[in-house]
Amino acid sequence: MVSSLYHGVSLWDLNSNGAIYNWYQTPKDQPFSLFNDGDTNAQADNNFVFATAIAPDDSHAVLADKTNFSLWDIKTGQNQGYWQVRQSKVVYRTKTINGATKQLSIYDVVDENKCLNPSSEKNEHCVVVGNIRAIDVSNEGKNILIGKSNGVVVHINTTTGRRLEFLGHQQVLFDDEQKPFHINNAINSVALSPNGLYALSGSSDQSAYLWSTKTGQVIYKFQHHNRVVQVALDAQARFAFTADTGSQASIWDLTTGNLVSQLQYVNRQEVFSFARFSHNGKMLVTGAPTRKLSLWDVQTGKQIKEWLVSPRKNSRPASAVVYSAAFINNDTQITSESSSGLNEVWDIK
Q1: Whole-model pTM?
Q2: Could you tell me the fold of the domain covering 271-349?
Q3: Are the beta carbons of 170 and 151 closer than 8 angstroms?
């Protein structure tokens, strides 16, 4: 599945090397703006979907931009639902400078759950407090998991409509006037188990949590010393992977919560853009913003192989971000997708 600015989101059949569907989350001819103060007369042939996921059973796909997400049936190509993250009622703080009142970018939340009848006299506004940053979907499209910029992770059961908010990453501090404010606890990566019962979330608060989507209770906390930017779950519930912006990239045993291995690399730090376990649970593949596609041994953390994906045409220096990868043909090959727009296949042996 590939999302591009001018061609929507395309679902490809890698066996026939052809596009099956072309989906648009933003209705065409709808005004849009690249920036808050951009050209609102521009038309929405452009596509702003930046987060996508395919269910482990290949039945459904989810797409997300900053404030909207949608569910699609892969068999029929039909849309199964559109949703928008809720808006909150806020009051922007003001400051008087040389007799003039200036509105600040800082606001106090009046009603986090809804925004009804905002009062201009009270300087009330409807805003999305937490933008979408990551998304995942379970088998049969029955569960959707979204991670937001305000540290909230939302689990949605698409069959019943049940919605659960996980607040484990939220930490409230107080300013000099004892007014609450939040630290940077943005959710950077999420993963959902195939049955939708367990979620893994990684945040800028330097932690990752494995938690129950039924109760919201924490099962394991995986502590880091830098922002956690990548997480992954083994489909058979054997392992979890968490990685930060520093030197810690860990594989955990989901039966005990104990550390299995640390990825061993020469660089002082390594930032991963993607990670996925093999079907047999013996290997992990990771992608990086530096063209690197790496294969690791789960039990030892040692690197098995490394490839460089093809760079963008005419880029100087040669560069590409590895966006996604998957094991195919009984874990004998890896297929990768990068910012160069190329899907490439790599032999493991």
Answers
A1: 0.86
A2: Thrombin, subunit H (2.40.10)
A3: yes
